[in-house]
Amino acid sequence: MTLARRLWTYQAERFPLLRTVPLLAVFSAASINVSALLAGRELPGPGAYAIGLALGLILFFQMRAADEWKDLETDRRYRPERAIPRGLVSLRLILGIALGLVPVAVLLALADGTALLWLLLLVWGWLALMTVEFGVPAWLTARPLVYLVSHMAIMPLIDLMLTGVEWAGAGGPAPGLWLFLALSLVNGCVLEIGRKCWAPENEWPGVDSYSGLWGARRAASVWLSLVAVAAVLLAAVGWATGGALAVGLVAGLGLAACAAVASRFRAAPVARTQAWLDAAAGLWVLICYAAAGFLPLVTGGAP
Question: Of 35, 112, 190, 252, which has the fewest beta carbons less than 10 angstroms from its beta carbon?
């Protein structure tokens, strides 16, 4: 295959743009909207949303590239069908693309002001530390909850940068922004546990999962507990942005739906209910950002 065809196949398998772009568009736009709503400011122009989406895409691709480097040996031993181990593309090529996007991201950040550049550098710094497991890989591996939180901490940092697209040149972040950043941290954990909560027959030797660590039923309970915390934070964000009723209703209904999915998985941890749990995790996070970032605008929240 040509290089272009191989890269297209790689993105379809490891960074599917048809799914990733819409999700990141909602994520980045919601972050910008919430920042403005919390501060009572007018929404910025379309250029800010374009910068937020572009930076989000670059950062999430760079996170994928860092994971490819970090997981290379595990993939070679236990998941040889993946793109890099099977030789579809080289790790050097993927890392080269990720590094080549650095100046693009710098220029995008500078287009919004130097403050945004510092926020971008903060995210890159944390990503670099994550990639080398903070210099203590064995210690982190032995403490899975610390590992989870330390790696998911990049989500509120990315959200801080995305909200900075709005507040960096407009007087600083709103006091209530921490609620939204906390929601991002918890939702990162919801996604991570949801995608690694597997049926017993789907556990891979040599590949860590939360169901393997805690057992499938307990992992589902932990996942649902985190969804409940996220629901409370989402309702709090809705209250702070003037959309308390609508956002709170979405939080409650979403939590009920996730509880039903978790209950089915706990009762029968099989491939089908595993897929439901994984899908529910992604859908919950998407609904959270859509509700927080757009419902207050529809229902007449803060200007």
Answer: 252
